[in-house]
Amino acid sequence: MTTNVMIVGVGGQGSLLASKLLGHVVMSKGYDVKVSEVHGMSQRGGSVVTYVRFGNKVYSPIIDKGEADFIISFEELEAARYLPYLKKGGSVVVNTQQIDPMPVITGKAVYPEGLLEKIEQSGAKLHAFDALALANKAGSSKATNIALMGKFSKLFEDISEEEWLSSLKACVPAKFLELNEKAFYLGRNS
Asked: CA 82 to CA 93: how far, in whole Å?
Protein backbone atom coordinates (compact mmCIF):
# COMPACT_ATOMS: atom_id res chain seq x y z
CA MET A 1 0.00 0.00 0.00
CA THR A 2 1.41 3.36 -1.06
CA THR A 3 0.37 6.70 0.42
CA ASN A 4 0.35 9.60 -2.03
CA VAL A 5 0.71 13.20 -0.87
CA MET A 6 0.74 16.30 -3.06
CA ILE A 7 2.10 19.54 -1.66
CA VAL A 8 0.88 22.46 -3.75
CA GLY A 9 1.33 26.18 -3.54
CA VAL A 10 3.09 29.18 -4.92
CA GLY A 11 6.84 29.53 -5.36
CA GLY A 12 8.62 30.90 -2.30
CA GLN A 13 6.18 29.51 0.26
CA GLY A 14 8.36 26.67 1.53
CA SER A 15 6.96 23.61 -0.21
CA LEU A 16 10.45 22.14 -0.47
CA LEU A 17 10.93 22.21 3.30
CA ALA A 18 7.45 20.76 3.80
CA SER A 19 8.20 17.84 1.45
CA LYS A 20 11.61 17.34 3.04
CA LEU A 21 10.01 17.19 6.51
CA LEU A 22 7.37 14.69 5.39
CA GLY A 23 9.94 12.57 3.56
CA HIS A 24 12.21 12.53 6.61
CA VAL A 25 9.53 11.54 9.12
CA VAL A 26 8.11 8.70 7.01
CA MET A 27 11.61 7.44 6.16
CA SER A 28 12.39 7.36 9.89
CA LYS A 29 9.38 5.02 10.23
CA GLY A 30 11.02 2.61 7.79
CA TYR A 31 8.99 3.40 4.67
CA ASP A 32 10.41 3.51 1.16
CA VAL A 33 9.99 7.15 0.10
CA LYS A 34 10.05 8.93 -3.24
CA VAL A 35 9.93 12.73 -3.33
CA SER A 36 9.60 14.48 -6.68
CA GLU A 37 11.34 17.58 -7.83
CA VAL A 38 9.30 20.75 -7.82
CA HIS A 39 7.13 21.01 -10.93
CA GLY A 40 6.22 24.51 -12.03
CA MET A 41 7.83 27.86 -11.50
CA SER A 42 10.14 27.81 -8.52
CA GLN A 43 10.40 31.59 -8.35
CA ARG A 44 8.08 33.47 -6.03
CA GLY A 45 4.59 33.66 -7.47
CA GLY A 46 4.46 30.64 -9.79
CA SER A 47 2.38 27.53 -9.14
CA VAL A 48 4.43 24.64 -7.73
CA VAL A 49 3.71 21.02 -6.83
CA THR A 50 5.79 18.32 -5.18
CA TYR A 51 4.86 14.67 -4.79
CA VAL A 52 5.71 12.55 -1.76
CA ARG A 53 4.93 8.83 -2.06
CA PHE A 54 5.69 6.30 0.65
CA GLY A 55 5.00 2.66 1.42
CA ASN A 56 6.73 -0.71 1.60
CA LYS A 57 8.13 -0.28 -1.93
CA VAL A 58 7.61 2.76 -4.13
CA TYR A 59 8.72 2.71 -7.75
CA SER A 60 7.86 6.19 -9.00
CA PRO A 61 7.51 9.65 -7.45
CA ILE A 62 4.70 10.71 -9.79
CA ILE A 63 1.03 10.89 -8.73
CA ASP A 64 -1.65 10.70 -11.42
CA LYS A 65 -5.16 12.16 -11.33
CA GLY A 66 -7.39 10.43 -8.79
CA GLU A 67 -4.46 8.92 -6.85
CA ALA A 68 -3.59 11.44 -4.11
CA ASP A 69 -4.61 10.43 -0.60
CA PHE A 70 -3.80 13.94 0.64
CA ILE A 71 -3.31 17.39 -0.81
CA ILE A 72 -1.56 19.95 1.35
CA SER A 73 -2.18 23.38 -0.13
CA PHE A 74 -0.56 26.68 0.74
CA GLU A 75 -3.51 28.64 -0.62
CA GLU A 76 -7.09 28.12 -1.80
CA LEU A 77 -6.76 28.40 -5.59
CA GLU A 78 -3.93 25.86 -5.69
CA ALA A 79 -6.06 23.41 -3.68
CA ALA A 80 -8.85 23.78 -6.24
CA ARG A 81 -6.44 23.53 -9.18
CA TYR A 82 -5.09 20.15 -8.03
CA LEU A 83 -8.37 18.71 -6.68
CA PRO A 84 -8.73 16.33 -9.70
CA TYR A 85 -5.65 14.50 -8.36
CA LEU A 86 -7.39 13.63 -5.08
CA LYS A 87 -8.87 10.15 -4.76
CA LYS A 88 -12.45 9.71 -3.57
CA GLY A 89 -12.58 10.27 0.18
CA GLY A 90 -9.15 11.91 0.23
CA SER A 91 -8.22 14.80 2.52
CA VAL A 92 -7.25 18.37 1.68
CA VAL A 93 -5.35 20.45 4.24
CA VAL A 94 -5.52 24.04 3.03
CA ASN A 95 -4.30 27.40 4.21
CA THR A 96 -7.20 29.84 3.72
CA GLN A 97 -4.82 32.47 2.35
CA GLN A 98 -5.59 33.75 -1.14
CA ILE A 99 -2.66 34.76 -3.33
CA ASP A 100 -3.57 36.49 -6.58
CA PRO A 101 -2.08 34.80 -9.65
CA MET A 102 -0.68 36.95 -12.45
CA PRO A 103 -3.97 37.10 -14.48
CA VAL A 104 -5.73 38.51 -11.39
CA ILE A 105 -2.91 40.96 -10.69
CA THR A 106 -3.01 42.24 -14.28
CA GLY A 107 -6.81 42.56 -14.21
CA LYS A 108 -7.45 39.89 -16.87
CA ALA A 109 -9.25 37.63 -14.38
CA VAL A 110 -10.82 37.69 -10.94
CA TYR A 111 -9.97 35.40 -8.05
CA PRO A 112 -12.66 32.67 -7.97
CA GLU A 113 -15.11 32.79 -5.08
CA GLY A 114 -16.40 29.90 -2.99
CA LEU A 115 -13.42 27.61 -3.55
CA LEU A 116 -13.55 25.98 -0.13
CA GLU A 117 -17.25 25.21 -0.57
CA LYS A 118 -16.53 23.65 -3.98
CA ILE A 119 -13.75 21.52 -2.49
CA GLU A 120 -16.07 20.33 0.27
CA GLN A 121 -18.89 19.64 -2.23
CA SER A 122 -16.50 17.42 -4.19
CA GLY A 123 -16.55 14.94 -1.30
CA ALA A 124 -13.05 15.75 -0.08
CA LYS A 125 -12.39 15.79 3.66
CA LEU A 126 -11.55 19.47 4.06
CA HIS A 127 -9.26 20.78 6.79
CA ALA A 128 -9.15 24.54 6.12
CA PHE A 129 -7.54 27.02 8.50
CA ASP A 130 -5.53 30.24 8.55
CA ALA A 131 -1.98 28.85 8.65
CA LEU A 132 -0.54 32.28 7.84
CA ALA A 133 -2.08 33.79 10.99
CA LEU A 134 -0.67 30.92 13.07
CA ALA A 135 2.77 31.36 11.50
CA ASN A 136 2.66 35.08 12.31
CA LYS A 137 1.62 34.21 15.87
CA ALA A 138 4.67 31.92 16.07
CA GLY A 139 6.90 34.77 14.93
CA SER A 140 7.19 34.74 11.13
CA SER A 141 4.97 34.36 8.06
CA LYS A 142 7.72 32.12 6.66
CA ALA A 143 6.59 29.36 9.05
CA THR A 144 3.24 28.96 7.26
CA ASN A 145 4.54 25.72 5.73
CA ILE A 146 5.30 24.26 9.17
CA ALA A 147 1.91 25.32 10.57
CA LEU A 148 0.35 23.44 7.62
CA MET A 149 2.50 20.39 8.35
CA GLY A 150 1.47 20.58 12.02
CA LYS A 151 -2.19 20.34 11.00
CA PHE A 152 -1.38 17.56 8.52
CA SER A 153 0.51 15.61 11.23
CA LYS A 154 -2.78 15.07 13.10
CA LEU A 155 -3.98 12.91 10.20
CA PHE A 156 -1.27 10.29 10.87
CA GLU A 157 -1.94 8.51 14.15
CA ASP A 158 0.94 6.05 13.67
CA ILE A 159 3.49 8.90 13.63
CA SER A 160 3.87 10.48 17.05
CA GLU A 161 4.28 14.16 17.79
CA GLU A 162 7.79 13.39 19.06
CA GLU A 163 8.72 11.76 15.75
CA TRP A 164 7.49 14.81 13.82
CA LEU A 165 9.47 17.12 16.11
CA SER A 166 12.59 14.98 15.73
CA SER A 167 12.31 15.27 11.94
CA LEU A 168 11.67 19.00 12.25
CA LYS A 169 14.90 19.27 14.23
CA ALA A 170 16.74 17.38 11.48
CA CYS A 171 15.32 19.53 8.65
CA VAL A 172 15.35 23.07 10.07
CA PRO A 173 18.49 25.08 10.93
CA ALA A 174 18.94 25.41 14.71
CA LYS A 175 18.49 29.20 14.69
CA PHE A 176 14.95 28.79 13.27
CA LEU A 177 13.96 25.69 15.24
CA GLU A 178 12.10 27.36 18.14
CA LEU A 179 10.00 29.47 15.76
CA ASN A 180 9.14 26.44 13.62
CA GLU A 181 8.31 24.30 16.65
CA LYS A 182 5.83 26.98 17.76
CA ALA A 183 4.27 27.06 14.28
CA PHE A 184 4.07 23.25 14.23
CA TYR A 185 2.27 23.14 17.62
CA LEU A 186 -0.11 25.93 16.62
CA GLY A 187 -1.00 24.10 13.42
CA ARG A 188 -1.26 20.72 15.10
CA ASN A 189 -3.58 22.06 17.80
CA SER A 190 -5.71 24.27 15.52
From this structure: 12
Task: Give dist(CA 138, CA 178) in Å, integer.
Answer: 9
How much helix, strand and coil, in percent to the nearest 5, is found in the chain? Answer: 45, 25, 35
Which residues constitute the domain of residue 173?
2-188
Decide which of 44 and 16 is more confident.
16
What does the pLDDT look like over 63-106, one tens digit per residue? 999 999 999 999 999 999 999 999 999 999 999 999 888 888 89
**Tell me, what CATH number does 32's domain have?**
3.40.920.10
Put residue 43 in one of left, alpha, beta given phi > 0 → left and psi -120 to 50 → alpha.
beta
Domain count, the chain: 1
pLDDT, tens digit, for every residue of 178-188? 999 999 999 99
User: Is the CB of residue 153 less than 8 Å from the CB of residue 114?
Assistant: no
User: What is the three-class DSSP state of 145?
Assistant: helix
pTM attached to this predicted model: 0.93
| DSSP run (H or E) holding 86 | strand 86-95
Contacts 24+ apart (CB under 8 A), 17-22: 17/145, 17/146, 17/171, 17/172, 18/50, 18/72, 18/145, 18/146, 18/148, 18/149, 19/50, 19/52, 20/171, 21/146, 21/149, 21/164, 21/167, 21/168, 21/171, 22/52, 22/149, 22/152
